[in-house]
């Protein structure tokens, strides 16, 4: 039996995560009073027909949440195993989500979302420190989050507590402001100047072959993969839970898409560090005739 505690910041995806756990066959309970958590865990874990259980906890528990640290200690002493899943996101993304849904943050007494987020971070910090899995949903699609959760809780694969987002972009539209690593591939052969390739993208085999037929392209990709294979575990060891790798060319349609695809395919297949790997092409649709 698996006993999972789902927690995290309001707006980071806890409700959606609980629904996913239901789909995985878990018995899910949300916002259970803190004083009942220990008894609930004891009853479900020792029940002969108990299935996997997921318990949702968040800042709505108020001051009672302070008791949770002691309860977790009691669970460990009783030999009740549990896994904590913490959903996180950047302040900027959380504020944007709240504004889009026009919801009030549960801890923003004066209506200011930023203050509510800060209070919630402080209140949940002890759970984040003890979390077995941290998912930063700032740039994570629901389908990608589901895939990562399924890998861990259904397929029992290793998860390295870090999301690696690989994104292509066009310099003419600006460098992604949240990028951790930026690689300029404008020195590679440009399919834009080949008439039959101009309107295609790096997702098309013809464009990919054109870019990669240059020997320097293959050397560059191999060196880049080697460097990232060295860097990513170092970032994870330092405590980062998300790394955004941005690959740019002039328009974000040909060379950058090709290289981003190759990086994603390589690391996703290798499953380096058990990290979650996600791919995006920010500017691939821009500049098309309408």
UniProtKB/TrEMBL annotation:
Residues that bind GTP: 58-61
Alphabetized Pfam families for the sequence: PapZ_C (PF22740), RapZ-like_N (PF03668)
RapZ C-terminal domain boundaries: 162-285
Domain RapZ-like N-terminal, first and last residues per copy: 1-155
Keywords of the record: ATP-binding, GTP-binding, Nucleotide-binding
GO molecular function terms listed in the Swiss-Prot or TrEMBL record: ATP binding; GTP binding
Domain of life (superkingdom): Bacteria
Binding-site positions, ATP: 8-15
NCBIfam families attached to this UniProt entry: PRK05416.1
HAMAP family: RapZ_like (MF_00636)
Name of this protein: UPF0042 nucleotide-binding protein
Organism: Eubacterium oxidoreducens
